[in-house]
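Journal club prep — side note

Before the paper discussion, L.F. wants everyone to see what a predicted structure for a comparable chain looks like in token form. Sequence:
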Amino acid sequence: SMATVTIVTLPDTIVEGSEEFTVVISKNDGDPFQVSPDNATISILDDSSLVVSLTQSSISVTEGGDAVITVRVTGDFSVPFDVTISLEDITAEGSMDYVNGTFPFTFTITP
């Protein structure tokens, strides 16, 4: 004989990775049967998406000027995360035509 229990998970829009909880079966003291195994782990797979993108695909700047580019995050997230912007030569050369380097930064949660 078998019985089925349906456990409903709740949707959200937060990008958070997979989450887990445990289902435990128990019996009253003195019941004349065994419980084995007595637990199972349920994994909830995240269905939310987070996209990090550059807001401009092309920027023009006069020599000696500053190129400013914006990084956009679309989607909700439950923990801070890090990204790094790096620069790659095409026809301009790093350290000769622009200050070369990497730019790490952290996106934090704003209430």
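L.F.'s comment for the group: The two ends are 50 Å apart (CA to CA). Keep this in mind when we get to the figures.
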